[in-house]
User: What shape does this take?
Amino acid sequence: MTFSLTAGLVFLISGTSINAQSSKTANSIRTEATRKNFGEEGRPLPLAASWTCGHFQQDRSAGWRPENQMRLIEKGHHLLPWFSHPSTKDEVPDDPNNFWIRYYKAPIDRARELKLPLTFIASQWESALSRQPYVDLPADKNPNVVTTEGRIETKVSPFGPVGPWKELGATFTDNPWMKAIQSWYPDPPLVIFLSNNEHHKLRWKDVETSKRYIEQHGEGRDDDFKRKAVADGWVERYRALQSGIREGLTSDSWKKNALFVGYGVGDLAHLGRWGGWKAYSLCSPGRIDPGAFMWDGGSPSYYTHDWNSSRDDTAWSPQLEFMNNLSVLNETHRINPNYFFEFSVWDGYHTDKERQKKYPSTRSVYRKEGQTYDPERYGGFVQFGMWLMRPRAVRDFRGWIEPWDDMVDKDGNITWEGGGPYFLAIAKAVDRVHVNPVLCNWWRRGKLVPNRAHRHPYQTAIPDEWKDVDRWYLLDCDANSSEYPWKLQEPVHVFSLALVQGEKPNRRWLLYAHSPRGDRKQARVTIPDYKEIAVSTSTGGNFYEVTEDKDGITPVVSD
Assistant: This one.
């Protein structure tokens, strides 16, 4: 499917009739967005979303705006609607032609008519604590780092006063715009407040530069103590900030149905990859990650980064890294069964000429090798992460002003590749789970199969309590190396995993396989505790049902 936007196209949303297709899709979105993680009906089905809000006033980013999201929902796409978090200071204008009125009003009205959930995307809420008036407060009242020399640094501290965090939180909702939006739609079934969560913070390795830490704990504590102290401090402060956001709301329904989700929360993909991984972790004995205590949900990054050597076709890949995150998520769900897990995905594309000199766009790197990183390959890559993690949502990342369609110069040359087709690849992967009854059943009730014939290749400095935790789900395949453990740059030609239902001798499996570098006619994949089977694989991914009693392999036709 393709969907084209043209400059000046006006979407008429509010007041249109609710047709059968949009009503059915909206009902499914609402039901799955509010379903319990582990209810009697099985797991909730996924939804598609993005970080890019289209809130810059250029036509080229219009495809990401809420008005187009509503159009896509009416076409049958299962999206979790998202908006840029509104201004905390501006008044709501009376002019119906004002850009911001057009950005919010009609889509919010349409969301109300369809009873859809909402998401509001912010940068990093706490960054305001490192600006005036907070950064100018006396040291004893300042939420930022105070060094042992008494200097104020513009990064927040887990040991500073808690009050400013809650006070700041209230400003994000106790303001004219958010009050207006609540009046337009007073009873959404779910409201997600999503933070980019990347503001500068005191790192645990640097705690002895903090005057407050030294006053509270002294010098010479071990690393586990430092990580736990920092994590405990963040839990208290981020929950205070979120409490302020909730209390600033005027609608009881909004207060009741609000969730707070942070980018990068619960991300331990680097677990064991090299000896220094703990420097970027807040793990401590008995707690692999504090995210479940700090947030209602997390959105770790499933990225083929431009700035490091990870790819979608090697052992250093998001597919294998996220097997670590699955272990973290399982632990998180034991602590908080209602935790809202989504993940963010990016193909490493950008057009920044200066950045290209140091960090070439992933697409350009692949093209130099004679490969492509097109929407089909992106979709196959995304689906592996989906069926590994089974998230509540998959959130595509693009630059804030990235166009939906390709931009071309006067000679017809593409100057900026549109992100729309890549987002629609995610939407298609999500829709597939909703509309195909076989895949829907497997998503809800399948149990992921670990491959205990091997260990995860990332094994450096694993905590004792995690040494026997399942972290390896990639199935053996004759297309891949049989020499374990793999080095980071080891090519992986076929990524495959399996879900199982039933007991011997009547088990059934769902097999998913994708081959990033190109289609393969016969790949021999071993299902643990069963046997080797031969399947065809493609860049976009293939599904098969395997039955033990009939010894059968049936392709799942998903489109």
About this structure: The two ends are 11 Å apart (CA to CA). The first strand starts at residue 47 and ends at 50. The chain has a mean pLDDT of 95. The chain is about 30% helix and 15% strand.
